[in-house]
Amino acid sequence: GPVVGILPAAGRGVRLGEPLPKAFVELDGRTMLDRSVEAMLASAVIDRVVIVAPPELAATPADRLVGESFADRVTVVAGGAERADSVRAGLAAASGARFVLVHDAARALTPAELFVRVVDALRAGSDAVIPVLPVVDTIKSVDKDGVVTGTPDRSTLRAVQTPQGFDVELLERANRDAADATDDAGLVERLGERITTVVGDPLAFKITTPLDLVLARTVLASGVR
Ligand code: CTP
Ligand code: MG
């Protein structure tokens, strides 16, 4: 069966603070949405992409949201109030898929190779795969007053990125129950299912704040991506 990318792009981008919904903010003349779709389809391991758009933009023809050469492999659906609602809407439009890759439009500089690594792991037998990187800062847990309660051993910690890859039936099952995890794998974890990791990529960082936008634009201007 096909591999379907689900691209949550329905967020408002409150922390970024731009006038447009975040996925429609441009980086060097192209929207984050368009760049994300191109990376997914250019990887050649994803057959089609379901864009989960802000509801007021969901009726826009695909060829006005993304480059013309991708539009015939793209479906657009309306997102929901929370990211998990948007993923559920995307999943509903991914019928017939064998594997799904859930990927944030906000990770607009993700290299095609990362999609390949995730799909390779799925094809090798994993039902749930996430890209991860070592954490660079020491992480503390704190109580409600901000007083430190512990220091987890950093060598056992990983920062999690997208694309997150799943056997479609597993993600559907994970999403059936109330979904409030900050990532999709968190839902699968609650089912007690095994989640494997592949090496992430620094360029798959999530553009969340104005500083991230400066970084993304500088990366593009430098020619690294
Ligand atoms: N997302 C979505 N539907 C929502 C919320 C988020 O599809 N209701 C998507 C965003 O468009 C983004 C990804 O999920 O591509 C990661 O979310 P985040 O970085 O938090 O984006 P926003 O929610 O737009 O940003 P903020 O939380 O600052 O408003
Ligand atoms: Mg958000």
TrEMBL record:
Cross-referenced PROSITE patterns: ISPD
Keywords assigned: Isoprene biosynthesis, Nucleotidyltransferase, Transferase
Record site feature (Positions MEP for the nucleophilic attack), residues: R154, K206
Pathway the protein takes part in: Isoprenoid biosynthesis; isopentenyl diphosphate biosynthesis via DXP pathway; isopentenyl diphosphate from 1-deoxy-D-xylulose 5-phosphate: step 2/6
One of the protein's GO biological processes: isopentenyl diphosphate biosynthetic process, methylerythritol 4-phosphate pathway
Residue ranges that the Swiss-Prot or TrEMBL entry lists as coiled coil: none
Taxonomic superkingdom: Bacteria
Homology family: Belongs to the IspD/TarI cytidylyltransferase family. IspD subfamily.
The protein's name in its UniProt record: 2-C-methyl-D-erythritol 4-phosphate cytidylyltransferase
